[in-house]
Amino acid sequence: MTVNDTRFFAQGNVYLPHIAVIEKIVEETPGVRTYHFNFKDEKLRKEFTFQSGQFGQYSVLGTGEATFCISSSPTRPDHLEFAVQKVGRVTNALSRLGVGAEIGFRGPYGNSFPLESLKGKNLVFVGGGIGLAPLRSLIWNVIDNRDKYKKIDIVYGARTPVDLCFKYDLESWGKDKTINMVTTVDRGDDSWKGKVGVVPKILEEIAPPARDTVAIVCGPPIMIRFTFPVLEKLGFKPEQMLTTLEKRMKCGIGKCGRCNIGNLYVCKDGPVFSYAQIKDFVSSEY
Amino acid sequence: MADKKVSKKDIARLLEQWSRQFTVFAPSKESGVAAMAEWDGKDTGFLDWYRNTIIPPKASFLPQMEEMFHFQKGEEGYNIKTPPADERSRLLFGVRPCDARAMAIVDMTFKDAYEDPYYLSKRKNAVLVGLGCTNPCESCFCTSMGTNPTDQTNVDLMLIDIGDEFLIEEVTAKGKELIAKTKDLKEAAKNDEAKATQSKKTAYDRVTRKLDTEGIKDRLLASFDDKEYWEQTAAKCISCGICTLLCPTCYCFDINDEMVKQEGTRFRSWDSCGFPNYTKMPMENPRQEKWRRVRQKVCHKYEFYPMTFDVIACTGCGRCIRLCPVNWDITRVIESVPDKAEAKK
Fold first, then answer.
1. B345 located within any domain
2. Relative to the CA of B272, which of A137, A209, B24, B162 has its CA 20 to 30 Å away?
3. Is A172 touching B (CB cutoff 8 A)?
4. What is the DSSP letter of B57?
């Protein structure tokens, strides 16, 4: 198991949140928002580090805690970001907070994308909906060290054009000549000029070669389930497919019990897994 | 040095002596159910009724509900305060070997990777005084699960019933030190050792329920997708959660906030993989169906825990069999897991 050695514990207690302040709120889609935040404690603001793929436990004190990945890149450390869809208790409470409000943060927890072993490889990012959030941390990380990686494909989709998150990023990646950016929607509208079709199908059309390539997949469970077989068909081996998973968590550190897939805990053994690690259980547990 | 022993009628005096140094916990029915409770200073009636507690002794370290911290919203923002760490030295008197083994199993999770301060601050100063069983229940199957009714492996001291007295086995350095400081103990007589051996054998032979766990990890892995088997296994379960909440090796918990006006508390409480809400996310629930939850419970104990910690997270205490309102029986379930060859995918 891999646990990040950099630990930032409030008062030495792993369960105590650090207080952080919301600095900016970005309306991504009608239900999705990105929050920019920074720690209240100046020392922590300077010393805090994390890696792409790691997550935090975010508190709206009085309502509770929820798990979200850090969606910003460690290469851009002046603030931290996370993106949420307003669907549960904590995300609803968050939606009532404005800039300047205080939230709690514990973390960073979990493993991260294996940057070292991605270097010198072609990368295929496959994302759906808000599942782009964790990929986005890695994509910016890779772009900020562009010469270390070979070809980059990004296949990203959402149900409708309105549901596309991080439109400002999609635009920026689309303009980048070193990236093949493909955006798709399940259902287009009159003004939609891009591709129409579910992500796994579009991925199959683009058919990125498997040789020397790693695919990094994140999206709703149904998209993940249908993407792996497509990648296998394209010649990807289970070890060449990475994903980052989301499960209900309470502790974030492998104690409270609920986020397991088989013997692996998404919080401490993940959230980043290779398909090889989870294929025995993924069909019926995810 | 010869072994010490203590008369059953002197147990109150012994506990009274230990109370000066420790917060003594002993079996009690004070709360309405048998549990380890803070000893009241006189009652040793449990020696007559005690077979095992209903609430396992894990509750001394992982209480059913526990405050994690207190928070207050002021003009300067939130202020978070932890309750003082509970580092009282606890002495648990009368722990059964199955439950002592269970605590060693739970320790693995709370020590793993990130240390759990609430559990470990209580656990690290604890002394476990075991009490060997003389009258195991029909539902007990400890002898199949790596322990036995008089196993001293996971306690500091072990008391073996030799009639009107208990022979005291000094197991750990902590236990030896405690006995060295304890007054008024008797020296064991020549034939006490033989009496203890007989008492152990009798207790061992009274555990008649057996479970063959040979190859269970692989059988469960092969049967993971055998939906028909799991549906059948889960059919009569009513998802009450008792078998997990009262399991001595179960440790799952929930974390919640409570806030009135500007002040609140974050607390944790026991939770169970038997409840559908346990894994429920706003958009998905990987274990909405009952058979998936029953599968999780069985596999966590007999497949996943062995994969991670190399030990089955069941000690054969039998509570889940005794206390199940619909007579669900883990031993029958484990026995009926299909062999690899028969498992349907």
1. no
2. B24
3. no
4. G
